[in-house]
Amino acid sequence: MNLTKKKCLIAYFSRKGQNYVGGKIVNLKVGNTEVVAKMIQKITGGDMFHIESVTAYPKDYGEITEVAKNELRTRARPKLTGRVENMGVYNMIFLGYPNWWGTPPMAVFTLLESYDFSGKTIAPFCTHEGSGMGHSEPD
Ligand SMILES: Cc1cc2nc3c(=O)[nH]c(=O)nc-3n(C[C@H](O)[C@H](O)[C@H](O)COP(=O)(O)O)c2cc1C
Questions:
Q1: Is 105 buried (19+), middle (13-18) or exposed (0-12) by CB count in 10 A?
Q2: How high is the pLDDT of residue 102?
Q3: CB of residue 63 inside a 6 A radius of ligand 1
Q4: What's the pLDDT score for residue 18?
Q5: 75 near 104, Cβ under 8 Å?
Q6: For the chain, what are the domain ranges?
Q7: For every one of its 139 residues, what pLDDT tens digit does the chain have, with 9 covering 90 and above?
Q8: 124 exposed, middle or buried (CB, 10 Å; 0-12, 13-18, 19+)?
Q9: Which architecture characterizes domain 8-127 according to CATH?
Q10: How many Å lie between the centroid of ligand 1 and the Cα of residue 10?
Q11: Which of 61, 100, 101, 108 for mutating ligand 1's site (highest number of atoms within 8 Å of CB)?
Q12: In the chain, which ranges are continuous DSSP H helix?
C-alpha cells in the first residue's frame, strides 16, 4: 500500500489487565492491540487515537467477559472519553480492536457511528486468541 499521499490515523481499542493468552490467564501491562497499533504508527508516522469508554472495563478476566457479553447482547454504545477533533483531515484509518465474542468491543461501534467516513479508507486490524477477525468486518 502506497501511503505517501495519505494522512493516517491509527484508532484502536485495547484493554490492559488480565487476559487469556496461550491457554492461560496473564496480566498484560500493555494490551495486545496497542502493541500492534504502535508498530503501525512507526511504519506510517500517523496519529494515534485510543478508543476508551468513559466507564473503565474491569481488569479481571472473568468480569470483563461478562461485561462484554452484556454490552454485546444489549448492543450498547458506550460513551467515549474523547473525540477525534480533526477527523476530516484523515483519508486512511487503521482501525484496531480485539476480537470480543466474535466482533469488536461495542466502544468501536460508538466511534464508527460518530463520524462520516465517506471517501476514507478503513484498514481494520484485529488481535485475538484463535478466532481471527470473527465476523467483525461485516459487522
Ligand atoms: C471479553 C473478551 C472476549 C474475547 N473473545 C474472544 C473471542 O471470541 N475469540 C478470540 O479469539 N479471542 C477472544 N478474546 C481474546 C482477545 O481477543 C485477545 O486476548 C486480544 O488480543 C486482546 O486484545 P487487547 O489486549 O488489545 O485488549 C476475548 C477477550 C476478552 C477480554
A1: buried
A2: 98
A3: no
A4: 94
A5: no
A6: 8-127
A7: 677 778 999 999 999 999 988 888 999 999 999 999 999 999 999 999 999 999 999 999 999 999 999 999 999 999 999 999 999 999 999 999 999 999 999 999 999 999 999 999 999 999 999 999 999 999 9
A8: middle
A9: 3-Layer(aba) Sandwich (3.40)
A10: 19
A11: 100
A12: 32-44, 61-73, 106-112
Q: Is 104 in the pocket of ligand 1 (CB under 6 A)?
A: no
**H helices within 10-105, ranges in order?**
32-44, 61-73
15 lines ligand 1 (CB under 6 A): yes
Report helix, strand or coil for 14. coil
What is the atom index within ligand 1 of the atom nearest the CA of 131?
11
The verdict on the CB of residue 70 being under 6 Å from ligand 1 is: no
